[in-house]
Amino acid sequence: MTKRANNEGSIYWDEKRKRFIGQFSYKEAETGKIKRKKITGTQKTKVLREGKAFLDNIAKQAQISSAVLLKNFINNWLENTVKPTVRIKTYERYECAIRRHIIPYIGDLALVEIKRENLQKYLSDLKERGNCKGGALSATTVNAVRRLLKTAMNVAVGDGLISTNPVEQTKAMRTMKHPIKIFSEEDYKKILATAKAHSTKSYLIMRLAFETGFRIGEIFGLEYGAVDFSERIICVRQTIVSTKHGKKLQIMAKNSSSIRSIKVSQKLIDELKYFQSLHTIRKEKLKNKYEQEHDFIIENIDGSFCDPAYFSDKVFKKVLLKRAGLSQEYRMHDCRHTHASWLIAKGVKPIVISKRLGHKSIRTTLDIYSHLISSTEEEAVQALENVL
After folding, report:
1. What is the pTM of this model?
2. How many CA atoms lie within 13 A of 228 on its CB side?
3. DSSP state string for 208-228
């Protein structure tokens, strides 16, 4: 037997399968491990030709990958793949994570140089001193960066720049679930009375927050056209988001499930009818000086939409809670949690609550409120005993 030439591989005839089988060895760029590629065919020359083409392609990809730096790849991915397909708030969040938490640490590494070991160390270092002042970064933020990097590297695998995604071999940081804070019935009455004394706008915001469970941006994006007064239904179609270029009305809500319709009480409908009448009078009186394209429920004096962040930080926190004598630990989002807790306490099914809150899946609802749902297990046992 003559010595095989380079890249010829091991080719032999399989009598049982009546085919030539070629095995071609190559080194995996990311791991350095020797692997084999099996190619079969009825002609030895064809198997040899395909084997050589495979090895040539491996060598070519290795050369390309060694020249592609992570910072160049991930910025290109962000601008050309992510930006055209996501909402501006999502894009800005990704851009910030890449600029602050990825490129300064591992951006100068070539894609093929990124291994599980250095990635795991990078994640640990990020948690220890990854914030802007060199201090600790929350595990939740580190895990968000890890998910972002994992998504980008999956694209690199799809592009043939690397064969496997090293991020998948790393472990996420352990996170501590912080308990949600829920308004007691007494605290609810205090905050609502305080809001009513402060302004009609503050009162309406708080009424909507507690009765609908809408997110603050969804409340501020509501228009009277989204209210079906006869059926007592309010539809979420848009939201107000904060961007680098200021506040923006975003048509479409947080996710596909966020676009939803919920039923509300007749009392809230009557209040909305009253506020709509005032809105109509102002619009007719101010004419061109008033917002003409939209009819926001929560509006500025000229009919434009209000800033939800200003209300949460300046009004809710520093005025309403303080005047009501309530804990400063309450957040505006806790009105939404309180809404969900009321429904759970009344025995409403989790799937109904999930749809009402606009969660992407019932799993999200169960993850957040499982401790409240489990508190009703005694009722379940009692009901079963009654049947048995």
Report:
1. 0.73
2. 11
3. HHHHH---HHHHHT-BGGGEE
